Amino acid sequence: MVNVGVIGATGYVGIEIVRLLQNHPGVNIVSVVSQSFVGRKISDIYPNLKNVFEMECQELDIEKISQEADILITALPHGVSKEVIPRLIEKGKRVIDHSGDFRYRSVEVYEKWYNTKHEMPELLDLAVYGLPEIYRDKIAEARIVANPGCYPTCSILGIAPLLANNLIETNNIIVDAASGVTGAGRNTELPYQFCECTENFKAYKVATHRHTSEIEQELSLIAKEEILVSFTPHLVPMKRGMLCTIYANLKYRKSTSELLKIYKDHYKSEFFVRILDEGKLPETKHVAGSNYIDIGLVVDERLNRVIVLSALDNLGKGAAGQAVQDLNIMCGLPENMGLTAPGLYL
Amino acid sequence: MVNVGVIGATGYVGIEIVRLLQNHPGVNIVSVVSQSFVGRKISDIYPNLKNVFEMECQELDIEKISQEADILITALPHGVSKEVIPRLIEKGKRVIDHSGDFRYRSVEVYEKWYNTKHEMPELLDLAVYGLPEIYRDKIAEARIVANPGCYPTCSILGIAPLLANNLIETNNIIVDAASGVTGAGRNTELPYQFCECTENFKAYKVATHRHTSEIEQELSLIAKEEILVSFTPHLVPMKRGMLCTIYANLKYRKSTSELLKIYKDHYKSEFFVRILDEGKLPETKHVAGSNYIDIGLVVDERLNRVIVLSALDNLGKGAAGQAVQDLNIMCGLPENMGLTAPGLYL
Amino acid sequence: MVNVGVIGATGYVGIEIVRLLQNHPGVNIVSVVSQSFVGRKISDIYPNLKNVFEMECQELDIEKISQEADILITALPHGVSKEVIPRLIEKGKRVIDHSGDFRYRSVEVYEKWYNTKHEMPELLDLAVYGLPEIYRDKIAEARIVANPGCYPTCSILGIAPLLANNLIETNNIIVDAASGVTGAGRNTELPYQFCECTENFKAYKVATHRHTSEIEQELSLIAKEEILVSFTPHLVPMKRGMLCTIYANLKYRKSTSELLKIYKDHYKSEFFVRILDEGKLPETKHVAGSNYIDIGLVVDERLNRVIVLSALDNLGKGAAGQAVQDLNIMCGLPENMGLTAPGLYL
Amino acid sequence: MVNVGVIGATGYVGIEIVRLLQNHPGVNIVSVVSQSFVGRKISDIYPNLKNVFEMECQELDIEKISQEADILITALPHGVSKEVIPRLIEKGKRVIDHSGDFRYRSVEVYEKWYNTKHEMPELLDLAVYGLPEIYRDKIAEARIVANPGCYPTCSILGIAPLLANNLIETNNIIVDAASGVTGAGRNTELPYQFCECTENFKAYKVATHRHTSEIEQELSLIAKEEILVSFTPHLVPMKRGMLCTIYANLKYRKSTSELLKIYKDHYKSEFFVRILDEGKLPETKHVAGSNYIDIGLVVDERLNRVIVLSALDNLGKGAAGQAVQDLNIMCGLPENMGLTAPGLYL
Lengths: 346, 346, 346, 346
What we know:
4 copies of one chain form a homotetramer. By secondary structure, chain A is of the alpha/beta class. The first copy, chain A, folds into 2 domains: 2-147 and 317-330, NAD(P)-binding Rossmann-like Domain (Rossmann fold); 151-313, Dihydrodipicolinate Reductase, domain 2 (2-Layer Sandwich), CATH 3.30.360.10. The first copy, chain A, has 12 helices and 14 strands. Chain A has helices at residues 12-21, 42-45, 62-68, 81-90, 107-114, 132-141, 150-164, 194-197, 211-223, 256-266, 284-287, 316-330; strands at 2-7, 27-33, 57-58, 71-74, 94-97, 127-129, 144-146, 173-179, 202-203, 229-235, 242-249, 273-275, 293-300, 305-312. In chain A, the strands form 2 sheets. A 7-stranded parallel beta sheet of chain A has the order 3-2-1-4-5-7-6, with helices on both faces. In chain A, strands 9-10-8-11-14-13-12 form a 7-stranded mixed beta sheet. The model of chain A has no long low-confidence stretch (mean pLDDT 97). At the A-D interface, strand 8, strand 9, strand 10, strand 11 and strand 13 of A face strand 8, strand 9, strand 10, strand 11 and strand 13 of D.
């Protein structure tokens, strides 16, 4: 059994990690840290867990959690990681982090898009981008796993086979994305209030969302050339779920079925990537509550353009589920352990 | 391993049974019957199950499924059971049924509320009302288990301790209930269309809902006198979840905490009944996706009246989850096997 | 033209008043006060009003608004009214207020339920409870109109004909109510966050909601005896709309159609009260966006109990619409001026 | 007063036309035709209209409605128009139609995208594409006005200023669009059932939606060259509202503010087109319930690409509202008569 501590356990990503791990046959949750709720039972904050997981929230005591846990998963508000992660690393712990801090190869790119100085550049060498479908081997050995953003996971896995097989022009990639409101976290700002969100659809952070740079970094590495993308997120009045609609111009004439074959081949060993048959398209309800990502595509032969649709649960494969997948890899456990629940649909 | 067949597998209750059983460590699903989708893979109808459960829908062939399965779970439209269940019983099979046909002790009551002749009165003796918290021992031996309605489950478990302990006047029990839209099944009638349901709240079948008679039957058995109740269902614009708000006049002065103590005591051995502490009230999101029923209560001392709130997932403890709980009991498996998932909350 | 100022114009009730009045043929909005947004155009806060109503939010300057406006409508957070209303009255202004401060005949009742000292008891004599269907004549002359709460409006109008005609027992009246989330105002607390509200249903403030006392006051006046009621509010995942399900025991045998006749007669002169025909029940989508209240009922002859269903838009007849109705009465304008929009349904 | 008949009055578009016209100061509704509900009052089907609009649904009797009405608005299921419109034209009536039948200049394009033979090619010469911002003068005189599709209205108005001013490359225009569920009409098919739609987001008809051809026709006319576009519709779990996110590569360096100036100039005389200031983006809740279209844009200077966001109410400016706008123009009434309601926001 792996002993795991969850730091930032009462946010939406944190509690989803707890929900997954409490039922994980290879893991013990040994501590849950929540500065906002020190001393209160986690089932007091999330009563769905009553009788299921009753652990008390601790304050952040690096000494204590380092003794208890082998691996720490951090789901902290931006800017707090720097207080926590260097000290955990110092204690010899391994960390799966959910901030943007360790996702970048270039400190400059990070600093430009996050508009802040990087506080721990010396730790970047220890970090691996936690997308198992690309970095599985490195994740297995990593000291720090930087769990990817939800939008990047959904975008990169949707585009990767096209770039890896040199099938598309690289100067006109457009990712039009939409997410459920849990993507904003347990956030009490006005725009996430029920009456402001429901019966509404909008784009936000057009041309400026930080995840753009994360997507570009990984696509560029796959393509072995610099890739820039348009990335436009939208907010959907639903809790869980994310869909990316990706547009790219084909270099060569390819049919929908030819491309699907390439996708199926590309992901043939990937448990959590489901390539849909021709004529089928992903829907968020098919993946909500699961760690799957569903990918479908259509070639618009009139325009010689491919439209790829990729869907995942932003709290699942887009965050907590992927963290557990990374954890399994890091610990030599079966990669899908504790993660086989299908989406709820209903 | 118990071999189970699901008849009516592509309705909302049927597919929830499939979702639960495909992950149940003590059960094999050996056949899924769906007259509407014969020959199609179930993951074709419910793509959340792609790669997870790919069995093909069969037509209803009593001979064949009787050979394959030990126990059959039927989730059929009203009126179809009579074609199916007697023949299964004849074959020596045990059945968990979701219709109203086997829930009644009195053929007359059934015929009055269902406004139809009972087609299989001779089988009633084989049937047990499948509410484990009351009939656990009989369920263990039963040939036919009549899985209770969702509203009755939520109402009866909410009221039972009051009647069992002779705490309330029996002539003024009011059950004001609300359900998510999955309660109507995979129903394409206009009132269940998205634009007709969303941003709407309404009562329906006021003073005439069939579940009234089911609630009254069971409460009368507990009280050992005839109990009549007002039961008013409402439709909530959400998928899963049910809440009953129950009003009853207390015979004696009791405080909230005294009553909660009685409830906790009454249900102290019940895994799936969670009595909330004073000051806490159930919410459907705490139980949605689980087999739990949460019960809270408040005594209004001004009026010497108790208000009990009970919440469950109408597809979980209100239908499929309870069916699996019954199945476990019938097969001598741990009662919570395959049913320990907490509610999703998000 | 009546010159009206709206104080607290950027809350949900305030902005609904603005939306109604900007299109009212007998009214000029002369000032909008919002302490949070002084100097910003109201269409900047609510962009639906761009090009429609562009007035700038002012700070609260009693001197200035008293010169500009004949009547002031106040939709202020609890506790702020006392700074504002006495000074407006001193200036000779008439006020329509949305707080609880002027709704009570008894300072004691107010102080008990609001758990605070009443700050302006000397003004109570000037105040009229702003329910036109009961107090039309007094509203016409009133200095202060205390606009009723949304739940009381929906409950009182639903029950009034029963009490006025001495048809029910007065010791077992139960009001089970449900409201959309706008009822909580423009409120950024966690329970009103999208992900906490959507796909959820819950009761709140069971046996303790302040509106109980307001309902009881008015019902007692109608019945000419002290009436106590059970009142249980619930939160529905929708924006606008309120439904009350009211239970009362009949003193005499009456059929549904007999009672409906009494209701139709009772409200025969009321433009905004629609009594539904037998067999029809109100739904919130039929009234959302309008000033109508729809009332239907069913007699449960088994129990000799009537179940009354009343539905309104909590922002319409439950707040802003009723304020405009009161305003029309106060100014001698046709009572439905500016208020004839039907519900949206869609 | 103009006498208007609405044919197909009980679908979602039809009833929205009724809702708008019953309050229109220059229009009498003289007949409402609904084959499904002949003889029933329209307020029986849509109880929001009780006491507001009580007219009885007629069957389709061309003779009768031609005597009663000057102008007919048809909101019929695809394929029914051909039985109706030629006969109305023969009777000398003017028609505003909501089908695709009269939107095309080329019979071939229509037949290819609709995969059917055009039944009334001889009437095409009488038809004008009912987008007032482009064809106002012709609409004023037209015998047949073909009210544009909702997606085309939202897309064309969003892109027009770019093409009219020769600002973008014409080979890479992408329209990523999303609509509320009323866009599917009063449709009882399974995919529009509440439980299938809510908490879900999906694309549909990728690269094949008929509106593509309508968008292309109009953009080509503006650009004076053949324009092909990628158009991808998505379904949002909300009732009303549509957002288009439009991507185009700029020919020349332009800033966001420069482009906004061009847009404001282009639409400076258009009452219903609101160009948002820099930094603001449209949201569907700002236009839902109104006839406005809100347009905002952002230039992504890194990519020299503009992202235009346009939002409207698919039942408003996308259908019924625009029909009334056309009607006003056809009858010489003020173009915004009966259409000045702002969006509801809440």
